[in-house]
Model the fold of this input.
Amino acid sequence: MHQVVTVKAEKVPAGERLRRCKQEAEKQQKVEEVAEKLEECQEDLIEFHKSYHELFQFFCNNTTIHGAIRLVCSKRNKMKTAFWSVLFFLTFGLMYWQFGILYRQYFSFPVNLNLNLSSDRLTFPAVTLCTLNPYRYSAVQKELDELDRITHQTLMDLYNYNMSLVQSNWGAQSSRKRSPRSLSHHVQRHPLRRHKRDEPASLKGNSPPVDKNDWKIGFILCNETNEDCFHQTYSSGVDAVREWYSFHYINILARMPNTKALDESNFENFIYACRFNEVTCDKANYTHFHHPIYGNCYTFNDGNSSLWTSSLPGINNGLSLLVRTEQNDYIPLLSTVTGARVMVHEQNEPAFMDDGGFNVRPGMETSISMRKETTMRLGGSYSDCTEDGSDVPVQNLYPSRYTEQACIRSCFQISMVERCGCAYYFYPLPSGAEYCDYTKHIAWGHCYYKLQVEFKSNVLGCFSKCRKPCEVTEYQLSAGHSHWLSTVSEDWVSHMLSRQNKYNITSKRNGVAKVNIFFEEWKYKTNGESPAFTVVTLLSQLGNQWSLWFGSSVLSVVELAELILDFIAITFILSFRWLRSRQLPASAVPPQGAHDNTAFQPESSGPSAPPHSTVKAVVTTLPSYNSLELCGRDRDAKIGLE
Amino acid sequence: MAPGKTIKAKIKKTLPVTGPQAPTVSELMHWYCMNTNTHGCRRIVVSRGRLRRFIWILLTLSAVGLILWQCAELIMSYYTASVSVTVQFQRLPFPAVTICNINPYKYSAMKEHLSELDKETKNALETLYGFSEGKSKVRRDADDWNATESKFLERIPLLKFEDLSKKTVTEIPSGNKRKIETSVFHQGSSMVNTGDPQDVVGFQLCDPNNSSDCAVYTFSSGVNAIQEWYKLHYMNIMAQIPLETKVNMGYSAEDLLLTCFFDGISCDTRNFTPFHHPLFGNCYTFNSGENGKVLTTSTGGSEYGLQVVLYIEEADYNPFLVTSTGAKIIVHDQHEYPFIEDIGTEIETATATSIGMHFTQSHKLSKPYSDCTETGTDIPVANLYNKSYSLQICLHSCFQRAMVDTCGCAQYAQPLPPGAEYCNYKKYPNWMYCYYKLHEKFVKEQLGCQQICKEACSFKEWTLTTSLAQWPSSVSEDWMLRILSWDKGQKINKMLNKTDLANLVVFYKDLNERFISENPANNIVILLSNFGGQLGLWMSCSVVCVIEIIEVFFIDSFFIIMRRYCQKAKKWWNDRKAAPPQVNAPAKEGHDNPVCIDEDLPTFNTALRLPLPQENHRPRTPPPNYSTLQLDAAFTDPLPDTLEGRSH
Done:
């Protein structure tokens, strides 16, 4: 039953015309002309095929998919169909194998490494310089007095060393008791002790025994109820005393309400001369902060004012500082190093002096040459890095930009507050917390050292939580040293320094140091990453495979989709019609206007069938070009014939 | 017939040039869509329903758009390079090592040239800071100073700023108080903050032609002020001294080098090539490769590197020019110029300095991948150093050229361009002002040097790791100094001091050479393959179908439109020529116009429909008088060509 059905039932004549055209076309077996004729005929917004067979016929005639279509469209020849189905599945399999390889390659997110050498004006990094001594000993002596006395006593007991450090008037001071809960009470909780190594360990050592002699030294840390205790032991007495001292020092600092009053940050007393790029720099170029261990720190070029840029590499175009390194008023048990500490870091990055700094020797000119190297990783799925730290589940306690170190420290501090109820003094204070102090938090030391072990073995998960920033700038430093103040120039320079800065340098050569920080090269390296396999290349590769094996394209797929949609639509129409035809006999009303009018069909096929044969007869005699005429006229002619 | 015409006719017959065989553009499109291999297009024609057809047009166009977009992306990412890092273990050539004493010339030899300047400097120190080396000495100096004319201080006096807001200054030697009218062009940003005002010292440089145009340089630290001021005059004096005298005043190789060991074998001063540096005097390059031989090390480690003991005569140092003691070394390639003043590493006295090296070689791709230069020949700056190109050389050469152009003389620290001479204020009294102005311009990138100069594409670098140790140890000090003193020979009577010696070891940490090179990530094969992929993916198109599209959409369409115009023009011409008699002229319009047909061979329509009407000039056998042909109503109107063809 060859019939074209229009959606709208009223347009029966159009459908009939189309059918006639099609018949004509089929007779001539010329597909081109079918289309030509069809175009001539009036068409609807959307038309559907009458039957499945017709649909497939149309599809087979007009599809552009190679090969695979033979499978469906050559069904008359079973042998061919079998052959083509084998071919089809073979190519299909090959194609999907290749697709799999391509997808695996894409989803491994490979990257290309790019090496870029830029030579713009180099922005000078921030340089932080610290005095290596937290407070002048004379200023904090009052606070540390009691601790010093106990230390003195301990050293006397343990090592039989009489530490005659200061011309102290302990006797006078100790007479006036400050408070009933004096410091000594707390210090006694954590006494520095020496004990035999091979003694049956009732208390397990916290650190691995690396000592060679029989004695280990350490101090005991207990929780509130004194049930859980352990020894924090050290193989070297020096380490033990320093650690023990600084543990108590932290407590004292945490108790002091106004540490600000103690630190007298005097720029002129620390930095005697400062030059950048042959230009004098001054107070406007630095900011000051205080570090509890490294003392007064001055950060040059931290980005508050206009940034310094180096126009040329070389020692004359860098930062040159004269630093005082006098050690008279260092805290004896805390600051064992003399000199100054220098660190080079990016602007807006916190200066972690214990991470990246290095010390400047007194009496030396230290020339530090820098090479800048920037590494930029691709974020997202390419690597596990973070753009600005906003997606890291750790609150950044530092007021600066996200860095991995800042994150790790913040992470530790937050865990510390959670676990021990107070904050570690060296790290910034989270909101609502207070610094640890054993007058308030008796067992924080125990808690802290326990936590420290967990932190280092990554039980806290800080190292996995904190991800690397995607863009990291590194400064590779290498230093050269020369004696500063040669014997011949020593006189006049030290004279001028003492005269100008009104500070009497006692030891001419060791009281001062010179630091030069400069760029070694004008160029800086940028290690970048770029995706090696982008969506564009993936699509290209897929297209390559597709074309190679199937010779089809996205549009062929749409063709297939259209076929399926048509199939569904026809199924729907046919079932709908079938339902109607089931209902109609029951009502027994002569159907009107419906396209599936049964009365209509014989009528429509009636006139067409008889001329069919007659036309055939005429065509044989006619010149062939007649049949090429447009269908409308042809039909007219046929009608005329009749 | 003329022979030319015959050939023309023959060609026309055998190689017929036909236009597109479709009368109109729409028919051409139709024909194309039915026959092309490109997907999508056929569906536009075949589909039933206007909506369906519209969707197919949309799909096809979007596929074309996608292809164009993706191909554009491919082209744009064509010039990307990927980096490969190779680490290979091999016998490495030892780099050149240049060693200089920080003090350029022996102070004792320089005395006669610098005596006046030193006197004035000491005087200034005394006036400013009350510093005196010793009573008697100062008095003598002061007497001398009275005798000689103080030409340096007179020319560029040191100024002491009493009050910055009032701009009153004191000239140092004369003690004259005066006011500066000019704006204080100081080098600091905010002067007010800098310490105590009486400490501010500086000097003034003026344009001699226009005395109001002055620049005042101030320093917060007196040490810096004195040193800068001293250096300025020192350079003037040195510029007047011929090179040979300067070489003689500097340290000889025998002076500097006490012992030398390389790769476990003893070496001596013959292995060092002298080289005169304007600021550091005589420097010596080990393994400079000047005789074409470059030494290699067979093994890494400090034993197989270069070991030298340097003699640094601290007592013979210039007290004002240099304030530190030691030597400077630089590790560089044999073809590179050693920029000691910029990137040298200091060596400390009484210390053993071990410098471990790690070698990295990099190569970048030049244009169009990046903006670098292979040899430097494409840079419009003449290389003043006779060493291979580097960015640093280019910048210095560029500045020196600008200096010669602007100030008329060359700056002392850089090599002389041909035909120029070094600046000194005997001949060029205003050069210093000119230099400072120019340098400031250079720093602010107004000279254009930074724009002209490009970096070199390939470069070698040695990453250095320095470690220090006390040397000689207190127990070995005694015998070692004695033997070294004996080695030194001629000064046997003078015992060496350990602060005059420096031990230096330069060695390869390992013999791994890291080679970083860029390779093009794409090549033309990959690009074409990707193009093919895109074309195939969206439309199953190929190069042939692209050609097809060009043929149909551009050439054929153009022909059809041209033909249309040609016919119109002809018709118009004919109408004008014979307007009244030609009644049946309108019948000749269209593709079957005999005039046009002569030129174009049969079109698509005529070829199909008409069995060559114009070749049959003889009257054809009349068609059978079938009844079908009598349907004039159906035929006459749309088929005028058939009738006309017959009438011919």
Chain A touches chain B through 108 residues (CB under 8 Å). The longest strand of chain A covers residues 471-484. Chain A has a mean pLDDT of 73. Residues 116-137+254-530 of chain A form a domain with the Acid-sensing ion channels like fold fold (CATH 2.60.470.10).
